[in-house]
Amino acid sequence: MSATSFDRAAELRALDATYAGVRGLVASGVTHVPLIFRVPDQHHEPPQDDIVFANQEPAAIPVIDLACADHAAIVAAVRRAAEEWGFFEVMGHGVPEVAMTAAMDAVRAFHETDGGEGSDKAGLYSREPARAVKYHCNFDLYQSPVANWRDTLYLRMAPNQPEADDLPDSCRNVLFEYAHQMKNLGNTLLELLSEALGLKPSHLADIECNQAQVLLCHYYPPCPQPELAIGTSRHSDGGFLTILLQDEIGGLQIFKGEQWVDVTPTPGAFIVNIGDLLQLISNDGFRSVEHRVLAKNIAPRVSIANFFGTHIDPTSTRIYSPIKELLSDKKLPLYRETLASDYIKHYYSIGLDAKTAISHYQL
């Protein structure tokens, strides 16, 4: 198809109408990346970004053992990681390995079930914001400048848990249990982050930073031309805190020190990262860092991202601004206050790309 005859909007609608997502393209035997997935030239990083100079070890995100007996040392490690990296890895987290494995297997099984019109999977395909359980290809398909090589099962697990029958049969019980495990781990991490800010352990929970819980169960099919596509575009997360479980395929990178740093998969570990709203209320004490996922052609990649935020209710009057206990004459607020619902609406309206939603709220 020539560039002059390419109708992007029509191609996006055509992909959506298959109800089969990117996996459907791969299953159909596609050998070239369609134009809607082609990464624009300006999105390619300069070659020097990938250079590791002689005698220089590749950077790696901090690893924190939550089972360490020295609580003060854990809090200090969390503080350093949240301030300097915005990302860290946790071990000794208490989540049973069987729950982690079962969740990944269930997500993989769901995505590898045949889709298309008339299938059970197609019945879940939706872009309706109010729907608590849905499956789709790219949440921002019509906003983002480039479609991502990724399909997603979306589950809003709190504050109002969906009906059991709303979840796919293949992963219903498994993902309810996984969400319960993530809620417990999230509560532990928010207590540590509260202490790391010099606040009482319950502070972040008290202001409802964990009221909403969403699971995004991603599936990245093998890409025939991975150099031309992107798994997930460069972005920062919009909520307060993200806990990610990824398989062994890899591809996740964070942007630090003007270069992309690989987040190497570690069996049994979770990746934790700070979201925009936590950067805002911590007054830049903690960092929400841009990251991306590269497309791969070796095998499908599966990940489960657990997002904690505040309940997005259009009638909500919950306002967030830099925490007053963190401010002084020498530490003035860096951000204006915002309704949580307004922030998330703005975040979703711009789609995933190199823009950061938080800059819109800087003073």
TrEMBL record:
Transmembrane segments: none annotated. Residues 211-311 form the Fe2OG dioxygenase domain. Belongs to the iron/ascorbate-dependent oxidoreductase family. The lineage of its organism: Eukaryota, Viridiplantae, Streptophyta, Embryophyta, Tracheophyta. This is Fe2OG dioxygenase domain-containing protein. Keywords: Iron, Metal-binding, Oxidoreductase. It comes from Triticum aestivum. InterPro entries: DIOX_N, IPNS-like_FE2OG_OXY, IPNS-like_sf, Oxoglu/Fe-dep_dioxygenase_dom. PANTHER family: GENOME ASSEMBLY, CHROMOSOME: II (PTHR10209:SF813), OXIDOREDUCTASE, 2OG-FE II OXYGENASE FAMILY PROTEIN (PTHR10209). Its cofactor is Fe cation. One of its GO terms (molecular function) is metal ion binding.
